[in-house]
Structure formats: structure tokens, C-alpha cells
Known about the structure:
UDP-n-acetylglucosamine1-carboxyvinyl-transferase, Chain, 13 helices
Amino acid sequence: MDLVVSSSSGLKGSIRIPPNKSHSFRALVMAALAEGTSTIHSPAVSNDWMRGIEALEMFGAQINPKADRVWEIIGTGGKLKTPDDIVDCGNSGIILRFFMALAACCEGYTILSGDHSLRHLRLCQPLVDSLNALGAWAVCSKGDGHAPIVVRGRLRGGHTEIDGMDSQPLSALLLAASLADAPSDIVVKRAGEKPWVNMTLDWMRRCGIEFSNTNFEHYRVRGKSHWKGFEYTVPLDWSAALYPIVAALVTPNSAVSLPGMDYNDSQGDRMVVEILREMGAQIDIHGDTVIARTSQLRGRVIDCNDFIDQFMLLAVVGAFAEGETVLTNAEVCRYKECDRITAMAQALKAMGASVQERPDGLVIRQSPLHGANLDSKDDHRMVMTLTVAGMAGRGTTVIQGAECVKKTFPNFAEQMQGIGAELQHN
């Protein structure tokens, strides 16, 4: 599916943001590991959610949809069974990493694989090494650090070191360590993406898991943990919210409101609001409602590591900000659904921007953008980012392969049309 984006102005009205995927998935996993029944209200139901359910059922959990937007999970009490088939993780790095670690808590062999990005881009070797160090057995079948992965338990506990540039392997290891046969001592090198790790730690605290954390660089996790089922309502997604917020900032005569947002939630992407304000953005927060208006922006240096999913969107902001915007500490972007640094540099250059690529980020100078034919790279965040760029540029932009946006914001185009964006599907 192609998404055709035309120049837009005067975005007005309210937009409803979907629930947060990261909280949804952690709630699902923790409920599946709990004793008894849990209820999750308003999760982010997507292809990733459904794949996660299928996998957790293979590990022994029972998961059922109940009333509208309510899911009931009967947990395993931490006693996971070995899946009797390959775990297909699709396009989801979080499913691959988390279930690799959970597979180490089973007695038998588990095989995990996924799409091209999981088999060639999403690094697994740091987690493989740590699982082996803690007494399990894991191997990348091609010997290249990527899926397919074969894992055999059990996880015994002990001491390991892990590269923390990507937060998902560490989060996965922390959760698995809580089920290990003995305590685990985990030392982290290059600790990064800390808000996502902190979200995992918040869930561990919620469930009563005993652990210590020293500056996100050293953890001790008590094994043999048990927790009861729970009830949880998933908050709205700050990552998704930032696309209409930025669209309002960079298009003329716009004012967009987003109700239902929780500014006190642990999601790291909410910090981007303050970054944008420091760049001159008119963003007001009244209770749980965010209002963004057309703004004159100024370039600045931005360390993106605490909100790495917004790297590409901040690159678009840089094209509309006076002077120069430098995005740094984002090397991990090269190992997401695509190489987001190179992909974003290529897309912005095609739209007429002045962009310089660096190993860990981009330098963007204020530039008038124009329409172009662009490839989504099968990356949901690329679709939303390029839509915002196309709305604020001149002419028409065509984004190929836009259906992947369903991963986190299934009705993104329709919601944006509702506030006046000129979008259509081909």
C-alpha cells in the first residue's frame, strides 16, 4: 500500500492516541509468568501483540479476549513449557529478545526466528552470550549473531556481562534472571536506552521481584521469584503522540489537541516534549490534554539515546528549525527495523534537505522540503515520520509500503485525516 501525502496547513481538532506498545507487552509477559489470573485493559493490539499471545500460549499461558478491549491471562506461575514448534517473532525485536530469555527458563530446546530484519539486523549475540554465562545454552544457528536462535534451559544464575547499547536484551535478561535457579549478578557495558530498562524495572517492582540497580550498570536479581496476577490499564503512547504534535508545530496555522495523555508515566519519549519546548515549540499541557501549535523552532544538539525511537522524527524537526540540529548518541538506530540513520539521511536528501550522516547520528540544516517518492523500508516509524515531513513540505510525497504502520498506530492515516491532513491510500 502506498500513502500519498500532500502539503497540509491549518491542522485543527483532537486526535486519539493508541495505547503504549512497550507497557502492553511487558504487562502481557508479566501476566503470563504470574500465578493465577490477570486482566489487562486497553492494550495496544497489533500484529506484534497477536504474535506475542501465540508465543506465550506455546510457553503454557492461557490468553483470552473478554469484553471490549479487555484481555484475561491465566499465568504459568513461572513454570514454562518448551514450545512444540518454532516461535515466529515476525518483525518484532522485543518478542525475539524477551522470548529468547524466557526459553532459557524451559528444560528443552526452543527455536526462534523471524523476518529479514530479525535475521540480519537485530543483534542477538550479547543476549546469547549472557544466557550461556548464566548456565543455559544458546546459539545463533548461522553463527552471525542474528536469528534463527536455538535456546535450551535451564538458567542457573551466576555472573555475566552484557552490552547495554540496545535495551531489549538487557530487559529480557533481567526478567529471565528473576526465574533463574539462583541469584544473578549482571554488569552492563555501554548502558543505553535507560528509560526502556527503567520501564522493565518498574514492572519488576510492581510484581515484587527483588533486585538492586546501581546506575543502570550493575544489577543483582534474586531468582525463583513468584508473583500474583494483577489488573492493569495500559496508558496512551507518547511515541505515537509525537507525530501529530510535530505535525502541528511544522505546518502553518495549526493547533492540535491530544486528550488522555499521562505526563507522569515512565515512557522515555515524553521527554521529547521538553526538548521541543527548548527549541521554541508551543506545547501546552492542561491536565491530561496536550495542545501543540505552529511554532518557530531553533536548532540545537540533541542526545537521542533516552528517546531513540524519535530519532527520525527529530531529524524532520531539524529540517524546519533555524540553523543546525545535531542528533547524537544514536548508533543503536542502525539495528532497528532498518538502519534508521542511513534511511533517514537518504529520505531527507531526496526531499531536498541538507543532511550530513555521522556514525552515531545526523547533522540537519534548515531546508525547504519538497515531495518525493520514498520507501518505508518496512519500518512503521519511517512511515509516520515521512508523513509528517510530506505534510510540511511542498508538493506530493508518496510513501511505498505504508501498511507496516499498523505495528503501533493502526489508524494513523485516518486520525491524521480527521484533523485536516491531506492523505490518501493507493
